[in-house]
Amino acid sequence: MDDSSGKINRRVALKNIASATLGAGAVLSTGSRAESESEPIRHRAGWKPEPPNPANLPPNRPAWMMTPGRGLTGYGSPSPYEKSVLRVPTTVTAIDFASWNFTPLQHLHGIVTPSGLHFERNHGGVPDIDPSQHRLLIEGMVKRPLLLTMDELMRYPTVSQMHFIECSGNTSKEWRKPTGKTVQQTHGLLSCSEWTGVRLSTVLDDVGVDPKATWALAEGADAAAMDRSIPVRKLFDDAILAFAQNGEMLRPSQGYPLRLLVPGYEGNMNIKWLRRLKFGTAPSETYEETAYYTELMKDGRAKQFNFVMQAKSVITYPSGDMQLDGPGYYEISGFAWSGEGKIRRVDVSTDGGRTWHRAQLQEPVLTKCLTRFRFDWVWDGSPAVLQSRCVDETGYEQPTIKSIIAARGLNSNYHLNGIQSWKVDRNGGVTNVHV
Ligand SMILES: Nc1nc2c(c(=O)[nH]1)N[C@H]1C(S)=C(S)[C@@H](COP(=O)(O)O)O[C@H]1N2
Ligand SMILES: [Mo]
């Protein structure tokens, strides 16, 4: 296949659809969906394809055209046929309230993560907060300390911006050997929403931050009272006090009624259920930034305050544990993102990194946001290794896992942004490999 010719025979895929529909004969197994519920979904769609009942096929009128459908609902939910598209929890923690689950990236389309599928990472569970009881205290080295109600905060001018959040522990099981079966397991501590809120700089103008203040402590109102020190420069630059997500108020899991958003910074600094910002001249050296969330380097010294999530990309289709339906046309597709800014370029390889081809970037390409890339591929049926590699607007190129290990060693779990490889075997099975 050649990406420069621009001519791809997509009819292969269409022919498959036609034969699957018309040649299926009378075999039918409707109603067996419940039995297959626990089986992994091994393709892109959220349902398990089953042979059609010929009575439902054109020109016949299917059963669902014979009577009026159901009535209206106050709040919609996904089709019952999509019920396998779920966040899946980790298997490594014993307690549910200090745990995390993964976004099903392989079943997402475009760049928005539906709010109900945004990954969850909680150190002390999800608190149930009545917004009228919630306050944000801004104190420390400020001229006019403020105790803001949600109502007062929401009277400030607002902005809406799309940004990803990635846990710094995303992909952390992949350092030594391929571990996750699916892209949900390898990369699912990653989600992207449209966040609406007030620029923190707008509120800080009212508070009057002492120009000598260099750090602020952000604290959450959960049982963990999760807190992190953040450079004041970042807070003035692009931080948002976010109260809404994808058009509605934040989900409790994402910090209802208020979270701090520090675009491009590691997930844990985006403090949920935000209740306090305290300005000072030094980091607070909290548990979260000393015992936790530091990276032990090769030489035994620990790297602290490694804020930015560097450029990374991953192919989500086809991806681990999927089953391809024979040779022919496939649209390879995935996500690229960078905590430094916009994605400039994504390359795709189908031969394990020997040759690279430019992928198409889907507009909009936004700063510190997921970018969807696509690449036309005609699979000839021989084994292939699929990879993606991105470059961000600073010119930084996503490295290989090998080169990251060479530079940083294997003492730390965090910030693994290496190139992911998916092997397609002769039978169309897709598995996680290191090359
Ligand atoms: N108050 C508070 N904020 C928090 C956390 C927490 O446990 N408590 N977890 C952090 C971590 S480790 C991550 S990765 C992100 C996850 O955000 P999400 O749950 O909305 O995906 O929230 C961060 N903010
Ligand atoms: Mo995290």
UniProtKB/TrEMBL annotation:
InterPro entries: Ig_E-set, MoCF_OxRdtse_dimer, Mopterin_OxRdtase_euk, OxRdtase_Mopterin-bd_dom, OxRdtase_Mopterin-bd_sf, Sulfite_DH_SoxC. Residues 123-287 form the Oxidoreductase molybdopterin-binding domain. Residues 307-415 form the Moybdenum cofactor oxidoreductase dimerisation domain. Its cofactor is Mo-molybdopterin. GO terms for molecular function: heme binding; molybdenum ion binding; molybdopterin cofactor binding; sulfite oxidase activity. Coiled coil: none annotated. PANTHER family: SULFITE OXIDASE, MITOCHONDRIAL (PTHR19372:SF7), SULFITE REDUCTASE (PTHR19372). It comes from Pandoraea terrae. Pfam families: Mo-co_dimer, Oxidored_molyb. SUPFAM superfamilies: E set domains, Oxidoreductase molybdopterin-binding domain. Gene3D superfamilies: 2.60.40.650, Oxidoreductase, molybdopterin-binding domain. GO terms for biological process: sulfur compound metabolic process. Residues 25-62 are annotated as: Disordered. Keywords: Metal-binding, Molybdenum, Oxidoreductase. Residues 49-61 have a biased composition (Pro residues). This is Sulfite dehydrogenase.
